[in-house]
Amino acid sequence: MPLLRQLAADDFRQRLAHGKLPIRVGPYIYNVQSNLPTVAAGVATLYRDFRIADPGEFVDYNVAIVHSGLLQPIRGKAKFLFDKKSPFDIIPSGQAYAFLEWGMNWCVSVHTNEYLKLHAAAVSRGDRAIIMPGTPGAGKSTLCAALGLSGWRILSDEHAMIRPNTTQIIPLCRPVSLKNESIEVIKSFSSDAIFGPLSNETHKGVVAHMKADLQADSHDTKPLQATAMVFPRYARDEAQKLSPRRRTDSFILAAYHSFNYSLLCEAGFEAMKTLIENIDCFDLVYHDLDWAVNAVNDLPDRQSGL
Amino acid sequence: MSFLLQQILLEPRLALKLNNDQLNQLLSQARSARLLASLAHQLQNEAVDSLLCTTVSRHLKSAILIHDKQQRDLAYDSEKIKLVLDSISERLVVLKGAAYMLAELPVGRGRLITDIDILVPQQSIDKVERAFKEFGWSSGYVNNYNERYYRKWSHEIPPLTNRKRGTMLDVHHNVLPPTASPNVNASLFFDRLIEVKPGIFTLSWQDMVIHSATHLFHEGEFQHGLRDLWDLDRMLRDFPGRDPQFWQGLVSRARELELQVSLFHGLTYAQQLFGTPLPEGIVKDTGNWLTSLRKPVMDFLFLRAFRPDHPQCKLPYTDLALRMLYVRSHLLRMPLYLLLPHLARKAWMKLFEDDGHSRESPKNKEL
What we know:
The structure holds two protein chains of two kinds. Helix content of chain A is about 30%, strand content about 30%. By secondary structure, chain A is an alpha+beta fold. Chain B is of the alpha/beta class. In chain B, about 60% of the residues lie in helices and about 5% in strands. Chain B has helices at about 5-10, 20-30, 35-45, 55-85, 95-100, 125-135, 145-155, 185-190, 205-220, 225-240, 245-255, 260-275, 280-285, 290-305, 320-335, 335-350, 360-365, and strands spanning about 90-95, 115-120, 135-140, 160, 170, 195, 200. Chain B is globular, with a radius of gyration of 20 Å. The chains are: A alpha+beta, B alpha/beta. At the A-B interface, α8 of A face α2 and α4 of B.
């Protein structure tokens, strides 16, 4: 299994153009195809340290961003394909890279249910692993990126996948999606951040993805024990604070932030119960990233009660 | 001529001989055809799923979980829909996927639905629509032309969505548009309803088959063609055991409803693709000299349409066949003097009045 960066430039482009680039992401294999130069550039930058699956391994998701027909390149349009079919509308080529990443998220959001999936970022360091659920705009991705640039291992920016009836998080490390001001915030937070192509005028504004596999063990597939759940909320005008949060409230909020809590039915309830009963929950209100990173670094050890 | 999905649906054990590339193709074809959960059930029935690698079987389990969730939601939604209809003393008659699932038929196992289809008497349609709107359902944005189209030329009203739950409901007053050439007397369906749960009715087994075939062979888009044909196969294997008179009455019932040509196609292609066991002579009874004459053309068209929308399944001229079927469906739907202005208007709207609906939008689907 070579790493993507070990492929010769020509070989990489050929494989990508012909849909022969099976990339290993956590427990899954995505076969990625694209004939768009920006997408090739983005994949080459952000997935360079990812493993290429061996030929003959089972591919979980076939995804593609392609111009199709003669007119689409001229009109500046492209489409996302899943299983060779387009589940979404045609998009402007300038948003192609962001759509590839969203499409890859969508595969997991819609098509996998062997884990309880929370809409959350997850990071780990030493024997700690933290789940950070959040509504769009709550600042979970920004905080996740900042923690990643401060020595934490990014487990996911989008899906915290919990093995039912355990507290185990399944790592699913892919680039972190940053929007609008967050891009500059992270650039000024650390000069180490590596970005893919900028996608302008998407429905979420300007979007850029940050390379997320920054640790030596970023691509380990071994599950990690979650120790805490932190609900981040970016608020410019409020006092910054990290405060314990009641388990019952956390249960409801985490269920709300789950992709498949209700789909899993009783198994979902049991899985969430096991998770919440065995970790600590916190609210984190912040506007200064350095402060927030320190607050997470200094999270108190596991306590009982609440 | 056969393709992977078709082979494995019929002979699940063959899945054990597939390599990973083929398994990827199989799952991908099944997803495209909306048959992944049905495939999962077939594999489960023969205990093949547990012999597959977990990287593969997790996708099958996931599809079954999605189906199970739909089944639970349907049980809830159907009770809510029943309450609305109760308030105006109308019966709840469910059609297609929702009917298969609520009746807990084998054809409903692993069946995925996107909306709930119901049938109400034509004279009650306005009353029914008002009642649903009072109970929190709305029809969303439909432009003026489409609205008029629905009201005048369609056999259903614009789809309703439950504002709280997002459930989509298609309310039909017939199985074909009033402009279609077979003039179906929908009131005949109401004479033979089956109560599958307290206060929840479906068409009779025979009518269910006839309706499924009619829907399939009047449809212009075939993304779900194979799935619908699989439905027919499952029903035709199951219903004779529920009703010993099933086969005897089927053809005469189809004649009574003027839908024997659709039934002919349904029986023919179910047998051709899935080897559905049929009593001798039944295909001949439903067909006539015209259907035999047209058979080679129909084969050319439908054998292409019934393949999953997947590059590996494509035969030469598939695009042409699909386009011809699209035109055919419109010709069946209304006479030319109505059709030509309609298509011109649709083309105009597509070019200049992009109303932003996604391709999956049910509003665009039917028209």
